[in-house]
Amino acid sequence: TWDNGVRIYGLDIYGEISEKIERESVSVGKTVLAFNANSSYYNSPLNLLDGNTTNVESLWYTNRPRPTDSLSWVVIDLENNYNINKFRLHDARTLIPDGSNLMGYNVYVSPDLPDISKIGANIDENTCWTKIIDAYAEDRTDVDVKVDDLIANGVRYVKLEVPRSRTTGLIQIYQFEVFGQEVPSLVQNVVK
Q1: Of 38, 12, 25, which is closest to residue 178 (Cα–Cα)?
Q2: Quick one: how far is CA 34 from the chain centroid?
Q3: Is 188:38 a contact under the CB 8 Å cutoff?
Q4: pLDDT by residue (tens digit) across 25-43?
Q5: Are 104 and 136 within 8 A, CB to CB?
Q6: DSSP string spanning 130-168?
Q7: Collapsing DSSP states into helix, strand and coil, what is residue 35?
Q8: Cα 62 to the chain's mean position, in Å?
Q9: Distance CA 127, CA 149 (A)
Q10: Predicted model pTM
């Protein structure tokens, strides 16, 4: 018998959509392999991949890199290979009107696992990366949601890098979204 059981036979939910989610986003819930915040950080870079663009508390929040440790970075494992067509970064002013937006950032992609021990606070000695977004291409301080449309095929690993020279204050990034389509894996049947 199920004397103390709870049975739910249906559930209806009514309301309005608060935010449209683009289903091509392939970064939500993926893995942060490593990060360097150079000094203290206040919120984890895991918040970059939580899919939440409306919660003011859900962000990667860290001090500006020190002059001696000039780079803050996050390496993301997308867990499968993707053909990427867009990146979108929700900067500080998307939710904090007087926040410190970035002037720019670098994005690198790779199909191969980088050696995290070769990534330091000033240099990355991995040769697997391809740089596809350049922090110095233009000053994007006044752009709150930074969108980069591009083509990068067969990507599994993504590195978001913030150079000290492209910041004016704290790093406060709400989301870093990667968009694209999964590359179908080739599965071979082996007959014995």
Answers
A1: 25
A2: 12
A3: no
A4: 899 999 999 998 665 667 8
A5: yes
A6: EEEE-TTSS--TT-SEEEEEEEEEEEEEEEEEEEGGG-S
A7: strand
A8: 15
A9: 24
A10: 0.82
